């Protein structure tokens, strides 16, 4: 019978079946050695509250309870398989965390699994993230990819009719906020050189650039051109200030 005897009803993919056991254990240990792991998993009643509350569960064959259970069973095979496509169904809303009687954080476990998947440059991860190149470019160079004025109810009919009323005069309401909260595309995507340099330092020190290079070398080159240009400008500014 395909699938997992205790409920993971997605067949283990042929590609992950071929991966040597030692490699799966290595990846599994990489996830478990993350310092956050112990803060995200305490035990499980198997009550299913997390899955019942999970918005992604409504649309996909995806269950946070499954993830928690597989970790508690130390099911290396299934966890490794989940890390290829399954985990990308999570929308990171953390309702599971808020509602779990054990205060487990399945969404947090997904964060760790995704980070490890990216660090290991799984082919499935590369394919899944390909359409998000533009989002990554904006986030990594400006720290932001969405601005308030990009969220228009016309683009999201599923928000319902009430949203149209709420959005009336929304621009005036946003402009009344007395500090800049990225109210428009212009201000949200404009970042001071100093802030940009701090951001690049974070990306560099936390290994994000390295992860990106493995994931998408072309995008990495485009982003590094922008980063290096800004870093040069910053150096010049500092030198000018010293003179
Ligand atoms: S964080 Fe992920 S797993 Fe948890 S409820 Fe939200 S979508 Fe589901
Ligand atoms: S809500 Fe918590 S205890 Fe219940 S199944 Fe989910 S992870 Fe387990």
Automatic annotation (TrEMBL):
One CC-aspect GO term: plasma membrane
Annotated keywords: 4Fe-4S, Iron, Iron-sulfur, Metal-binding, Oxidoreductase
Pfam families membership: Fer4_8 (PF13183)
InterPro entries linked: 4Fe4S_Fe-S-bd, 4Fe4S_Fe_S_CS, HdrC_iron-sulfur_subunit, Helical_ferredxn
Entry superkingdom: Bacteria
PROSITE patterns cross-referenced by the UniProt entry: 4FE4S_FER_1, 4FE4S_FER_2
Keyword Secreted: no
Limits of the 4Fe-4S ferredoxin-type domain: 35-65
MF GO annotations: 4 iron, 4 sulfur cluster binding; metal ion binding; oxidoreductase activity
Keyword Iron-sulfur (UniProt): yes
UniProt protein name: Heterodisulfide reductase subunit C
The organism of origin for this protein: Hydrogenivirga caldilitoris
Source organism phylogeny: Bacteria, Pseudomonadati, Aquificota, Aquificia, Aquificales
